[in-house]
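FAQ: What does the model actually see?

It sees only this:
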Amino acid sequence: MKIVKLTNMTEQGFSTMGMVLVLSLLGGILLAGLNKLVLSQQRHLNQQKDYYHAVNHTLSSLQWSTTLNWLAATEQWQCQYHQHAKFSVCIKSSRLTASHFILVKGQYGEVKHYHLASLSHGKLIMEKGHWLDYCPEKQSADCDE
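And it is asked to produce this:
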């Protein structure tokens, strides 16, 4: 076996440069993948933040409804809109046969929450334990405005 001695200086360090290039390329690929992951998590976090923001506004609208004066509930929705907070609250008589509840619907954007209440002297009295994130009416048409 014959050993060849390299005397040309341009050939020395070529493998080192090649390895640096490969490592740089792998590092760039890993950083690009990490960037995609971070952006995906950031979008997910923003969606969750927006959802919880809407839920809080919706629940605030239900609480706000107890401070308002209402006419007697009918089969039609009766709504009030909060100009500053941009949420609405609506009431109508419920078709539930268990008792004579009033259905209260709070809405902010696409998020809706419902509560069963009664009406005394134009003020809503929320029933304890009757908070719902779905409409309790049997017919979906009874839930829409």
